[in-house]
Q: What sequence folds into this?
């Protein structure tokens, strides 16, 4: 059951963040090419971090907290499904960037942990429906 909850949570994250990426794709491409030309500027990283915060807010989280930090918190507090989801995200970051234990490392002192599965589902449904209304 916990594995199912973790997969469902990651599905919600994928839907919300994926839609943000698709909507902002031309801007993300601009950021990517701009960052390749000028060293030291992390425009793409900043944009992706902002999307991380927005995706967390859509799912009912606090605007100061990232999804990775929320998963790290769920792992530390003993949530079985949160631990599974955090392990999957950690694995992805390890493969992509070589970072070990990303979710725990993402936790910061000023993060606010207000996770609710009901808010995550409600926020996702309303956000996706609003996109549907705007696009069609």
A:
């Amino acid at each position: 059951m916990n594995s199912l909850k973790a997969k469902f949570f990651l599905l919600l994250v994928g839907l919300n963040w994926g839609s943000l990426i698709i909507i902002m794709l031309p801007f993300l491409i601009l950021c990517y090419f701009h960052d390749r030309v000028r060293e030291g500027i992390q425009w793409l990283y900043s944009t992706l971090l902002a999307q991380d915060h927005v995706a967390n807010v859509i799912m009912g989280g606090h605007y100061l907290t990232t999804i990775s930090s929320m998963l790290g918190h769920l792992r530390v507090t003993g949530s079985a499904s949160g631990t599974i989801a955090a392990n999957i995200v950690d694995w992805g970051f390890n493969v992509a960037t070589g970072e070990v234990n990303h979710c725990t490392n993402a936790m910061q002192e000023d993060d606010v942990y207000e996770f609710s599965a009901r808010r995550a589902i409600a926020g996702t449904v309303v956000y996706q429906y609003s996109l549907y209304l705007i696009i069609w």
In short: The longest helix spans residues 2-23.
